[in-house]
Design a protein that fits this description.
The chain is α/β, with parallel strands linked by helices. The chain has helices at about 15-30, 45-55, 60-80, 85-110, 115-140, 165-180, 205-215, 250-260, and strands at about 1-5, 35-40, 145, 185, 190, 200, 220-225. Helix 3 (about 60-80) runs parallel beside helix 5 and helix 4 (about 85-110) packs antiparallel against helix 5. The protein starts with a strand and ends in a 9-residue tail after the last helix. It binds adenosine-5'-diphosphate, aspartic acid and magnesium ion.
Amino acid sequence: MKVLKFGGTSVGSVESIKQVIQILEKNLTEGERIAVVFSAMGGATNRLIEIGRMAAAGNQEYFELLKAVEERHFATIRGLINVKQQSSTFANVKGLFNELEDILRGVSLIRELTARTMDLIMSFGERLSTTIITETLKNKGVNAEFCDSRKLIHTNSHFGMADVNFELTNRHILEHFAKASALQCITGFIGSNAEGITTTLGRGGSDYTASIIGAALDAQVIEIWTDVDGMMTADPRKVTNAFTIPSISYAEAMELSHFGAKVIYPP
Ligand code: ADP
Ligand code: ASP
Ligand code: MG
C-alpha cells in the first residue's frame, strides 16, 4: 500500500489536477495499491476563513467572495469533465455551496464565529476539491470513491487543532479499507469529534491525514506531492539558492519542520 497526498498547489488548477490524474493513473497501471489524500484548492482555505470573518463582521460583501470561490470550482469542473457528464458533479458541488451559504448566512445574522463553526466552514475546501477530483477520475473510467475523512479520523474537540484519538481512528481506517475496493479519494485536514462535529487538524494538516492513514494501514510509502522537489536547505521562496536535500533523517526533518519549513506539517 502506498498513500499519496496532493497539496493545494497540486490541486489548484485544471492543469495541475490533470497532472495529478496522470500520476495516479501511472500508479494504478503499475498495479500499485494506492490511497490518495487531497488538500483544498490552493488559497481556498484562506479565502474561506476570510469569508467567514467578513460574514461575522456583518460585511455583506462576503457573498461576492463566496460566489467567486464557487465560480472557481465550477470552472474547474468545466475544465476537467466532459460537458455531457458534468451535471452530477455540478449538482454535488452546488449542494455543498448551498450548505456553506446557509452556514454563512447564520454567521452573518448572529454575528458570531466560533472555532467550531470556522472548522465547519474550512472543511468545505477539502470536501469540494476531493469531490471534483473523484468525479473526474470516475469520468475517466477509474474505479474511484469519495471518502470523507470525518468518518475515519476521530479527534477531541480542540477545534482548529484537534488531537487524534488513534485507537478509534486506526480501527475505523482498517475497517474501512478492508471493505473498500475502489480507489479511496480522501479529504485531508478534517476529522470529527465524538459527537460527529467537524474538526480540523491544524493549518497544513492534510500531510498529517496522509500520515495517519498510511501508518494505520502499515503502508510502505507515504508520498507528499507539492510544488517543490522535496525538502530543501531553506524555503526556496525566501532563499534563491536553496537546493534539495537528497536524503534526510527523521530527526532533521522534524527539526526543519518545527522551525517553520511548511513543506511538512510537524505532527
Ligand atoms: P502544499 O499546499 O502542497 O501542502 P505548502 O505550501 O504547505 O504546500 O508547502 C510547500 C512550500 O513549503 C514550498 O512552496 C516552500 O515555499 C515551503 N518551504 C518552506 N521551507 C521549505 C524547505 N525547507 N524545503 C522545501 N520547501 C519549503
Ligand atoms: N487546506 C488546509 C490548509 O490550507 C490543509 C492543507 O492544505 O494541508 O491549511
Ligand atoms: Mg502544506
